[in-house]
């Protein structure tokens, strides 16, 4: 009886060690798959970038924010910062933008001098696992790296792409 108990305990220990060894051995493969998915998502972002930017402007302008202002122009930076949402695990591309507004007639902002100033912000794009999209979400007064720091409980930095490195 004791022999069976010892034999079962040894078998379970061997199985646990083998399982742990398999998990450790799989890490590089998992990391390689993640790196390939990220590279594919980055390539797709650049291929889809122009229509994504147009959709961003359309959706951001439709929010009515900031109140009393109309979106006139948006300049997108070439650099891209990629971050992962900690809860959904979705990849996000964050791009620095400069936004120009004009006052909406009757919106109460016609006399505000600051309306004509260009505003720095960050545009957000989301990868759903297959394609990129945007909801027009903008983080005013934050560069992409500052947005990741500000949202550190929700986002983790994955990669930074600088335009100079792509050419």
Describe what you observe in this structure:
The protein has one domain (49-166). Strands 1, 2, 3, 4, 5, 6 and 7 form a 7-stranded antiparallel β-sheet that branches. It has 3 helices and 7 strands; from the N terminus they run αββββββαβα. It is elongated. It is α+β, with helices and mostly antiparallel strands and 167 residues long.
Index terms:
29% strand; single chain; 167 residues; 7 strands; alpha+beta; seven-stranded antiparallel beta sheet
Could you write a compact summary of the structure shown?
This protein has one domain.
Average pLDDT level:
85
What oligomeric assembly is this protein in? Answer: single chain
Number of helices: 3
Poorly predicted regions: none
The percent of residues in helical segments reads: 40-55%
User: Which structural class do the helices and strands define?
Assistant: alpha+beta
Rounded to the nearest angstrom, the radius of gyration is: 24 Å
Question: Which sequence of SSEs, written as H and E, runs from N to C?
Answer: HEEEEEEHEH
Biggest sheet, open or closed, and with what strands and sense?
Answer: 7 strands, antiparallel
The backbone outline, from C-alpha atoms, is elongated
Number of β-strand runs: 7
Q: Tell me the β content.
A: 25-35%
Distance between the termini: 72 Å
Q: How many domains, in number, for the residues?
A: 1
């Amino acid at each position: 009886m004791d022999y069976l108990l010892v034999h079962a305990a040894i078998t379970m220990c061997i199985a646990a060690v083998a399982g742990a060894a398999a998990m450790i051995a799989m890490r590089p493969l998992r990391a390689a798959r993640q790196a390939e998915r990220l590279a594919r998502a980055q390539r797709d972002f650049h291929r889809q970038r122009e229509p994504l930017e147009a959709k961003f402007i359309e959706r951001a302008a439709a929010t009515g924010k900031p109140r009393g202002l109309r979106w006139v122009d948006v300049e997108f930076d070439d650099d891209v910062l990629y971050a992962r949402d900690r809860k959904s695990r979705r990849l996000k591309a964050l791009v620095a933008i400069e936004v120009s507004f004009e006052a909406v007639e009757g919106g109460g902002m016609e006399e505000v001098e600051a309306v004509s100033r260009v505003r720095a912000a960050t545009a957000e794009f989301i990868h759903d696992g297959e394609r990129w999209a945007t909801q027009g979400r903008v983080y005013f007064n934050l560069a992409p790296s500052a947005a990741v720091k500000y949202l550190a409980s929700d986002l983790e930095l994955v990669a930074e792409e600088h335009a100079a490195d792509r050419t």
